[in-house]
Amino acid sequence: MTLEIILFILFALIGAASGVLMITRKNPVMSALFLILNFAALAGVYLLLNAQFIAVVQIIVYAGAIMVLFLFVIMLLRPDAEISILRTNPLLKYVAIGVGVLVFAQLIYLIFFFKPLNITPSDVAERIQIGTVENIGTEIYTKYIIPVQVAGFLLLSATIGALVLAKKKFE
Amino acid sequence: MDLWTIIIISIIKILFVVTITLLTVSYLVYFERKISAWVQDRIGPNRVGWYGLLQPFADVFKLFLKEDIVPDASIKSIHTLAPIITLFVAFSTYAVLPWGPPVNIFGYEIPLVLADVNSGILIVLALTSLGVYGITFSGWASGSKYSLLGGVRSSAQMISYEISMGFSVAGVLLISESLRPAAIIESQSGWMWNAFIQPIGFITFLVSAFAETNRLPFDLPEAEPELVGGYHTEYSSMKFAAFFLAEYANMIISSGLIVTLYLGGWQVPYIETFGLSSGWVTMMQIGAFFFKVGAVLFFFIWVRWSIPRFKYNQLMNLGWKVMFPLALVNLVWVAILVMLLN
């Protein structure tokens, strides 16, 4: 067994176990903790796929920023409020189950029936270089500049919208 | 170089870095107390050892002998996990900071850095962004409202200043055209230090570093008057020592980052014109790195004992309305500079 396979099994096991632990915890903060561990394991898998930049951004954005926001919301709200929402509106439960089945079916399709696009270069040296910050930056700011700008404007408008909503509440 | 040589050299380097860090941390506490005494015209610790030089060991020994109290209202597992996260983040960041030029020993070229990774600076940012969890979890898991308030305050502060920190770093990256710390240092040869090229970015990074390490004037998370000690109110014995250690380890890593990004790293300006042998040059460069880090550390302590604490709204105003726009101005300035000179 090569080092790569050993590491993959390690990261995959941590990711799967933390995923299961995340949805079975009663305490939402514990769930959040396992989700962070899941993100970290995923970052490890990205590293094995030569996607160094995505691995680091996974940690910075998901584990470092978004989960902090989640934790804030969980800590400042009463966690038992969610249970009462489910109790007053039992239909939500079935919607959640439906969405879960849909996502699961999608994953099954992707794993067993979908052929991956063969765009990775056959040369090993080139394959290592493909995920570096320099390469991703060059691609994003030349080939994919319009999608990037559109996404930027979307985020900007979302920020302005959030500001307007927050300001209305204080006035 | 075969695999075993690499492993042995790496282990030696890890031992060196960890030993230096632990020693520096313990003596940093001593110097903090000595310098504070000097600022306030007192004598400072002078009982244990010659001029109080064994004081750090006495402090650690005292904490080691204390009872480890875990409050009943706390969530035990996370209460224990929080100091571990904090220490892990504080110590793992040293892996990517180079403390000298590559040296030749027994025919091997050895870079004086644990991991010379391509996206080194991003890894530092990623690890510091994980540092928030140690504080948030310790505040939440203690089951005390003072701890929770301290934890929430601190994470809000760290997230806010991470933004201006990131934008200041972007200015440095525009000049170095690489995320590798070694390449960033090489781009600052001579007196072309980033602190002189982009002084605004230097100041925003410096202020953000103070806020990220929770040092005065931004040490609101542990404001004694209203929070009784903040996120580590409910910690005692070695768990408290872990937080204490991590704070000083973070200070060293911030100083190392400031030196690497803005003060030329291990470079001594125009040292090649002095006509010294290569061994002396390497020694002087390694010495220069530690000297610069020491100078920044002294600045950290000096500020702590000179400037009073900010109020919370002042802190947020400074972060969002002053530092963030200034970091953006700096980014535009560096972009114009790079465009004109290329």
Describe this structure in words.
The complex is a heterodimer of chains A (171) and B (342). Chain A is an all-alpha fold. Chain A folds into two domains: 135 residues, Four Helix Bundle (Hemerythrin (Met), subunit A) (Up-down Bundle), CATH 1.20.120; 34 residues. Chain A has eight helices and no strands. The termini of chain A are far apart. The model of chain A has no long low-confidence stretch (mean pLDDT 84). Chain B is built from twelve helices and two strands, in the order H-H-H-E-E-H-H-H-H-H-H-H-H-H. Chain B has a two-stranded antiparallel sheet with strand order 1-2. The two termini of chain B are 39 Å apart. The interface between A and B is medium-sized, with 22 and 25 residues.
Strand order of the largest sheet of chain B: 1-2
Write the H/E string of chain B, N to C: HHHEEHHHHHHHHH
The fraction of residues in strands of chain A falls at: under 5%
The number of E-state strands of chain A comes to 0
Whole-angstrom Rg of chain B: 21 Å
Examine the secondary-structure arrangement and name the CATH architecture of the largest domain in chain A: Up-down Bundle
Element-level helix/strand string of chain A? HHHHHHHH
Instruction: Name the chain pair whose interface involves the most residues.
Output: A-B, 22 and 25 residues
Distance between the termini of chain A: 64 Å
Structural class of chain B: mainly alpha
The profile of the biggest β sheet of chain B is:
2 strands, antiparallel
Essential attributes:
heterodimer; A: 171 residues; mainly alpha; Four Helix Bundle (Hemerythrin (Met), subunit A); 2 domains; 8 helices; 82% helix; globular; B: 342 residues; two-stranded antiparallel sheet; 12 helices
